Amino acid sequence: MAARYYDGETAAVEEVMLRVTSHELVIYRPTDSSIVARWPVADLSVLGDSHHEAVPPLAIRGSEARLIVEDPAWRAQLATLLPALKPLALEPVRVAPRLGGYSLAIVALVGLFWSAIEYGTDYAVPLLPYTLQAKLGETVLDELLADKEMCHGKAGVAAINRLANDLARGAGYKHDVTVHIVAGGPVNAFTLPGSILVFYSDLIDQAKDSSQVAGVLAHEIGHVVHDHPIKGVARAYGIDLLIKVLSGGYSDILSTFGTGGSALLAMRNGRAFEREADATGVRLLEQRGLRADGVSTFFEQMLEKEPSDAASAAGIWSSHPPTRERIDATKRPPTGTPAFSAAEWQALRNVCK
């Protein structure tokens, strides 16, 4: 029977033939029948087994030399002649069923983990001490606004904080809300963990009336009362942890997938959070008998400035629902009491002066 012989001392490989006797395995050259080596049967071993390797090598005790027998029939014959070489002829493990089982188990575990991230945060986040949420929010605020000019007009700051806390208490929220006003743009507002709201003064300056500022503020209070900021942090951390578990922290492919997967999850959560905040903001204004049309008119104003609607163009990669959808969902008549008194609105317009 044919085999390949490695002497363990050089890189050379030699094509050889084998002959089995009762006490030794004779290795010889097929060209001239010269003996290459004689391996005592008692010292033979198989490195590994054919369960897990296509061709497990033969070895001899005390030597680095190796024999490779490619032909399965000859390996089976060797195992028959020399019982110590039985691992040469074991049935290969059927990989497909095991791989399928492992794959299903991994998919199930990922699905379970994903569900825990997706839905478990709704139950876990309220258990997180509020002091930790507030500390996180303050840390992020300090970093974001380190080089920004803040607006300190007392009456204007007091007016927007008064309305923010009125709306929050109307939703049964137990913590104080703090609104900070940053000088300049963009025309935006956002919410941080710990009931911290940030408004840019350009949003106030470009608002057509006080109902639009009240509408945006009510929307942000919707984020606050539903714990959206800390839920977003928890879900982002969870998906990042999942990807690290799957990749062991080493796979560039899975890391790349993780980046995209995390982004898509964050965007999807973002759209869900925005819809919930829109609906909550309108409801809180209506509950207090305040004008609630400012939410939709603010979106209409945005759409007038950018008719292409970046949210619609971005599709699944948008963190916000399409603007037209939001207008339709929040459309209300211009009725109800203004959210700010005339004096408060004037103070808010001059908050940076």
Features:
single chain, 353 residues, alpha+beta, PH-domain like, 2 domains, seven-stranded antiparallel beta sheet, three-stranded mixed beta sheet, 12 helices, 13% strand, rod-shaped
What's the number of helices?
12
Cα shape: rod-shaped
Secondary structure category: alpha+beta
Q: What number of domains?
A: 2
Distance between the first and last residues' Cα: 97 Å
Widest sheet, order of strands:
4-3-2-1-7-6-5
Descriptive notes:
The chain folds into two domains: 88 residues, Pleckstrin-homology domain (PH domain)/Phosphotyrosine-binding domain (PTB) (PH-domain like, Roll); 221 residues, no CATH class. Helices cover 52% and strands 13% of the residues. It is rod-shaped, with a radius of gyration of 36 Å. About 7% of the residues have low confidence.
Summarize, please.
With 353 residues, the protein is of the alpha+beta class. It has 12 helices and 10 strands.
Topology of this structure?
Blueprint: E1 2-6, E2 13-20, E3 24-28, E4 35-40, E5 44-46, E6 58-60, E7 66-68, H1 72-81, H2 95-124, H3 130-144, H4 154-170, E8 178-182, E9 189-192, E10 196-200, H5 201-206, H6 210-225, H7 228-247, H8 252-287, H9 294-305, H10 310-314, H11 323-330, H12 342-349
